[in-house]
Amino acid sequence: MKKKGPNFIEQIIEGDIIRGFDKNLLRFRFPPEPNGYLHIGHLKAICLNFNLGKKYNSPVNLRFDDTNPEKEAKEYVDAIKEDIKWLGFKWDKECYASDYFEQLYGWATFLIEKEMAYVDSQTSEEIATQKGTPTTKGEPSPYRNRNKEESLKIFKKMYDGDYKQGEHVLRAKIDMSSPNMLMRDPVLYRVMNISHHRTGVDWKIYPMYDWTHGESDYIEQVSHSLCTLEFEPHRELYDWFLDAISPLEGVRPKQREFSRLNLSYTITSKRKLALLVEENLVDGWDDPRMPTISGLRKRGYTPESLKNFALTVGVSKRENIIDVSLLEFCARAHLNEVAPRAMAVINPLKVKIINYKKDEGEKLDFEINPQNKALGTRKISFTDEIYIESEDFQEGPEEGFFRLSPGQEVRLKNAYIIKAVKVIKDKDGNVNLVMCEYDEKSRSGSNTPESNRKVKATIHWVSSSQAVKAKVNVYDRLFKVEEPGKEINIIDEVNENSLETKEAYVEGYLSDSLPGQQYQFQRLGYFVRTDNKKALEFNKTVGLRDRWKK
Ligand code: ATP
Ligand code: MG
Predict the structure, then answer these.
(1) CB 41 near ligand 1, within 6 Å
(2) Which residue minimizes the CA distance to atom 17 of ligand 1?
(3) Is the CB of 34 inside a 6 Å radius of any atom of ligand 1?
(4) In whole angstroms, what is the distance from residue 412 CA to residue 356 CA?
(5) Euclidean distance between CA atoms 220 and 91, whole angstroms
(6) Is 272 close to ligand 1, i.e. is its CB under 6 Å away?
(7) How far apart are CA 461 and CA 316, in angstroms?
(8) How far does the centroid of ligand 2 lie from the alpha carbon of residue 469, in Å?
(9) Nearest residue CA, atom 4 of ligand 1?
(10) Cα 26 to Cα 57: distance, rounded to the nearest angstrom
């Protein structure tokens, strides 16, 4: 791959170093909220932060932004950790915003004392109506000038759990006429009687994201806090909060924004992905059709292909939609290098080779991976009865059909040239057996003139006596439209035919494969063995070429 120059974030960091920032103090973080599984959008943020860590040899924290117990759970914490490890990244510290609740509470009290925060006792609706609009100023709350002693007293009682949800909130006292709506006295704390997955029932008030995020960066001494573009207007507030608790010691974190990853035919929003799970439209967060890291893993994607995808997409400030075929291209490119070849037939049609007289059959040489000659060959069984793909036979061939048909020769991959001589049908008239003759001297690699004879097509096959049955899951896109959710509800845009399960015949050799092992099934695409303990099962990762291309 072409080497790219520094991205704009790296240029910012280089600039800071030139202006005197101590390189040894660089520190980054990846800050997921544990309210869902990581998706392909997060991959971009993960790769950005961890690659910066590698480039500058600086630590990267994994910080769980766990400030909203309503939606968060330990299950998500565990899944997030597993996914990042699987991608091959190592975080320095495992941090939780909830570990800073006490410190944040202390700072909030300090803000009240400095008259930079006050308790508002209106309903959330009242507060919302006073917020104004981007073109009209907000109005001050009647509690805006509440004296600090009273605010301190109520805030302490909020902390003690003396109030019900919604009775009071703590707000920063900034500017109700700021053109930036986020600066119009944002809420810092709300009362919530909900148990938290880490702090249990210890807390009755929970800090808001904006208040928590920058202060957590400061506590961890994160130098560059990278987030997606929608947080750009939050930067002013991020800075205001850091100023409010000043004087700071050590590093003052700075927020910088990059564009989100959007992928065609895909959603990259946890909330919407959660909806698919709740509505049972998929089989959980790690369904192989889901654009989650765990779904892609089950689908057969490798960490290398995902990381390469992130690198290819790059980092910029421009919003765009990446074509999902780029992701598939990256999977193919890596699997082509690493996946051993095997044969499988998904829609089997039996073929009998009537002039093949070796009772025991024979063992033919089969190259494990032509991209890696060092792996050599293995033996594959050939017998007088085989399965081929039913699409590879046509009794009355249409124009341009060069595969097997009566009188027409075709090469069996790695084996012989055969010719169809007779067709046997069932009572409904469907072909269920094709009688063929083979050219005994045409065996691939045998160095006879016949072995080099060119025929118009090569097809794959498996020996019927050596083959085993396997369940094969073949996927289509999860959404029927390019930008799900743009026009109508995503639920109505789900492709009802995104999963097709078939019973295939695969080489017996594949029974010994391990869960997670990828293969290239000749001519069909890349497949991965699932962890199904009851049956031999494979998921199709991606086809051999881009079938969406016009
Ligand atoms: P979602 O909207 O899916 O819930 P989020 O931004 O709320 O995503 P977080 O868990 O808060 O999810 O995200 C953790 C980090 O991942 C943040 O820094 C966020 O900016 C980044 N991130 C989330 N989605 C994307 C995306 N599509 N592209 C790039 N980065 C993303
Ligand atoms: Mg978020």
Answers:
(1) yes
(2) 227
(3) no
(4) 14
(5) 13
(6) no
(7) 47
(8) 45
(9) 270
(10) 9
Gyration radius of the chain over CA positions? 31
Work out the number of other CB atoms within 10 angstroms of the CB of residue 246: 9
Beta strands, E only, 149-192: 169-172, 187-191
Expressed in angstroms and rounded, the spacing between residue 213 Cα and the centre of ligand 1 is 13
* CA separation, residue 294 to residues 104, 267, 268, 287, 423 (Å): 34, 15, 14, 8, 46
- Sign of the Cα torsion 3, 5, 9, 14 reads positive
Each residue of 407-430: pLDDT tens digit? Answer: 999 999 999 999 999 999 999 999
CA atoms of 60 and 52, how far apart (whole Å): 9
**Cβ–ligand 1 contact at 261 (below 6 Å):** yes
pLDDT tens digit sequence for 180-231: 999 999 999 999 999 999 999 999 999 999 999 999 999 999 999 999 999 9
Residue 5, C-beta contacts closer than 8 angstroms, at least 6 positions apart: none
Spacing, Cα 465 to ligand 1 middle (Å) = 51
Query: Is the minimum distance from the CB of 31 to ligand 1 under 6 angstroms?
Result: yes
Tokens of 112: 């009240």
Distance, CA 490 to ligand 2 centroid (Å)? 20
Domains annotated for the chain, with CATH where assigned, are 8-260 (3.40.50.620), 270-340+474-542 (1.10.1160.10), 345-460 (2.40.240.10)
- Residue 45: nearest ligand to its CA? 1
Amino acid symbol at 56: Y
The residues that are catalytic are 33, 260, 270
